[in-house]
Amino acid sequence: MMFVLTRILAPVTAAALAIGLPAARAQWATEIVDYRPGVGYATEWGTGLGYTDPAAALGEPSRVTPGEFGGPVDPFSPPYLRTQLVSLGEGGSLTVRFDQPIRNDPLNPYGLDFIVFGAAGFIITNGDYTGGGITDGSVFGNSAGPTHVSVSADGALFFTLDTTRAPGVDGLFPTDGGGDFTRPVNPALTSAAFAGLGLAGIRALYDGAGGGTGFDLAWAVDADGQPVALDAVRFVRVDVLADRAEIDAFAVVAPIPEPATWALWALGGGVLFWSGRGRRQTLANG
Length: 286
Hints:
Blueprint: H1 2-20, E1 29-36, E2 64-65, E3 71-72, E4 86-88, E5 93-103, E6 114-117, E7 121-124, E8 135-140, E9 147-152, E10 159-161, H2 199-206, E11 213-215, E12 220-221, E13 232-240, E14 245-247, E15 249-252, H3 259-285
């Protein structure tokens, strides 16, 4: 009976796995195309060495800060090492490329398509730095000047995201290394929403997300300020117009699976479980 059931549902299982379990792809920036540090980029305290290694912005955002004074990255404890961050001063620019295309998908959470992670953190206002910190919603280490984010499909023609809609990088929301880096925080939240909250309360508002600033490809405009329809891009550029900004990483927002996809995935997983159970019973009885 198990043999017959497996033979009948094998095609369904294969389809479920193919649709519900896509091949792993890089969700992060994989290549530095161009880096210009600009004027006034950050230097590490006490060393004078600059945060000028652009490769620090490749790969997954920081979950842990290594070293004697490091520890888990959370909204109160952002990354701060030169191996974790690259700094852009006034006039600075960083362009990265993704292996996986960033798709303009209005069904993404909050309609956002990619996330930029910085070095900002929530200020602890109750003086408790041992794990019971409370914030008033204000941040430290954030970029105080304007930034532009631009995108491109081919690396040659870039379109800036409408600055009246796109937030600045390296501000809200501070990184949480315990969250999902491919899931954006609700962009409607403001600093005031976090006033009086500790780590547990901040994470409740993050709703499983890993922080960072989310962006929507639908905000792209041309040189005349007219909307541009982009299906997908592979290049993202950050320009700092004043002050400075630190960048830890970039991430592609993961789409929300459709109900049918989840159903197929669950069915495929169930068939694999029962077929495996049947084989184990056969071996035990044989």
